[in-house]
Specification:
The chain is an alpha/beta fold. The protein has one domain: TIM Barrel (Alpha-Beta Barrel), CATH 3.20.20. The two termini are 15 Å apart. It is built from seven helices and ten strands.
């Protein structure tokens, strides 16, 4: 396996267990963001260019998991966007289409058209409206659930889990006319009860953040990608992912 100073990946990485998934939130121009969830559109495009130059392509979770089921998917990377920010439609989608990529957007079913009220110290960011979600579906973007109200699901009662996990699925299916097969845990917070609830609700997969004893089809770990991630940092993250699979 060799590298160039540009951070280009020239060897092949064998993926045995978990799919390789990037985690984004907001794609927008520079603003004060103490939570580091915002990636500048120019940086985002350079990150996609890095993927393509290394023989990789960013796709939705649905496409990635279907490909792996067929024994393919070696050169696919899942692209996920948490919270469902409205800037995805304006800033991310045109760049994705330009580079032949797709993605999964996890939206908060009970806050469509609202704001990221949970980020007390961060900038106010507008969330996708119902109509904008339908626009994304028409453009081939997968929509997944990010719960009903963006609460931490670990430690929740059965009643609360049903509302956050099951009700959000119903709302989004009615909105999109499609089966919602993916769930994403707010804050990456989960426990065995929450993971079981996601599985029992009929989701095909669930996205977490970190690896844990609960990691699996319904608690898939992901790799955070931020505004500081240039080619060399992306290469390092890719290598770290491969090493952990050995």
């Amino acid at each position: 396996m060799t590298t160039q100073t540009t951070g280009r990946l020239t060897g092949k990485l064998v993926e045995r267990s978990f799919p390789y998934v990037w985690m984004y939130h907001s794609i927008d121009f520079h603003i004060h963001d103490p939570y580091l969830i915002t990636v500048d559109p120019h940086r985002f495009e350079r990150q996609l260019i890095w993927l393509r130059r290394n023989g990789l392509r960013g796709v939705s979770m649905r496409e990635l998991l279907q490909a792996r089921k067929l024994g393919a998917g070696r050169n696919l990377v899942g692209l996920t966007f948490d919270d469902g920010y409205a800037d995805f439609l304006r800033n991310a989608l045109p760049i994705l289409k330009k580079h032949g990529c797709t993605a999964t957007v996890f939206v908060i079913a009970g806050l469509l058209g609202g704001f990221n009220e949970w980020d007390l110290e961060g900038p106010r960011k507008k969330l996708l409206t119902s109509h904008e979600v339908q626009q994304l579906v028409s453009q081939g973007i997968e929509i997944g659930s990010h719960s009903l109200s963006h609460q931490r699901l670990s430690g929740k009662s059965t009643k609360q889990l049903l509302a956050e996990i099951n009700d959000s699925k119903t709302i989004l299916q009615d909105l999109t006319g499609q089966n919602i097969v993916g769930f994403c845990y707010p804050y990456g917070a989960l426990d065995e009860q929450a993971v079981n609830a996601v599985r029992e609700a009929g989701y095909d997969y669930g996205c977490a953040i970190w690896r844990s004893p609960l990691s699996g089809r319904h608690a898939l770990p992901r790799t955070y990608v931020g505004d500081r991630d240039n080619a060399l940092r992306l290469f390092a993250k890719r290598i770290r992912y491969a090493v952990r699979l050995r």
